Amino acid sequence: MVSAIILAAGEAKRMGTLKQLLPLSQTTIIEKTIENVVASGVDETIIVLGYEAEKIVPKINSAPVKIMINSRYQDGMSTSIITGLIAVEAEANAIMLFLADQPFINSQLINRLLEEFKYHNKGIIIPSYRGKRGHPVIISLKYKAELLSLKGDIGAREIISRHPEDVHEVEVDAPGVTMDIDTQEEYKSIQK
Predict the structure, then answer these.
(1) How far apart are CA 138 and CA 125, in angstroms?
(2) For residue 8, what is the domain's CATH number?
(3) How many Å apart are CA 153 and CA 67, to the nearest integer?
(4) What is the total count of domains within the chain?
(5) How many CB atoms lie within 10 A of CB 76?
(6) How far apart are CA 9 and CA 167, in angstroms?
(7) Facing residues of 2 across strands?
(8) pLDDT 10s digits, 106-142
(9) pLDDT digits (tens, 9 = 90+) for 59-69
(10) What is the pLDDT of residue 118?
């Protein structure tokens, strides 16, 4: 069982606005991300909110996701990962970490990474595009204690760097794995 955790608690300081709710075609960035994850083969979807969660919840509360609120979001991404882990079903043997501002990770790509996790004897699966690593990342819950001890805003990079022998990198033809939307310029470019 693989549980998806969508990290959506950040303040988006470089964007200057709540990027999760920015329009994207007929929906919003966060709704498109959720739609892609829910349409995939993950067993459950957890979304971790924090900054201005009260504005986001009404947009997503009808989606088939567990909503978790990270009251410590200002302490960095690690607190959101830990908040998401708390909600993971006991049967789960891995988590798949998503960034909320990557709406171009489609369900087919997610399913490919799930297959790679299933058929390779590696505990960490990372997609890469043209040699650059991206998201979403699958991490076996044999690393749960390490995930729960994360600090600051580094996400899971620390665990990945500690266990290079357990990493399976999957080259994909999907630039979306390395794209995120941090600035107004990036947002304008993805709208084209």
Answers:
(1) 5
(2) 3.90.550.10
(3) 21
(4) 1
(5) 17
(6) 27
(7) 94
(8) 999 999 999 999 999 999 999 999 999 999 999 999 9
(9) 898 899 999 99
(10) 94
Cis peptide before 136 (omega within 30 of 0): yes
Q: Are 61 and 67 in contact (CB under 8 A)?
A: yes
In the numeric block, the tokens 């504005």 are attached to 55
What is the DSSP secondary structure assignment for residue 40, as one 8-state letter?
T
What is the domain extent for residue 142?
A: 2-191
The token pair that represents 189 in the structure block: 């470019």
Residue 172: phi and psi, rounded to 5, are -125, 155
C-alpha distances in Å from residue 60, one per residue of 86, 120, 141: 20, 34, 27
Coil, strand or helix at 89: coil
Its pTM stands at 0.93
User: In angstroms, rounded to a whole number, what is the distance separating the alpha carbons of residues 98 and 100?
Assistant: 6
Q: Is 190 exposed, middle or buried (0-12, 13-18, 19+ CB in 10 A)?
A: middle
- State the alpha helices, DSSP H only, in the chain: 29-38, 53-60, 77-87, 107-119, 144-148, 157-162, 184-191
- Residue 85 predicted with pLDDT over 70: yes
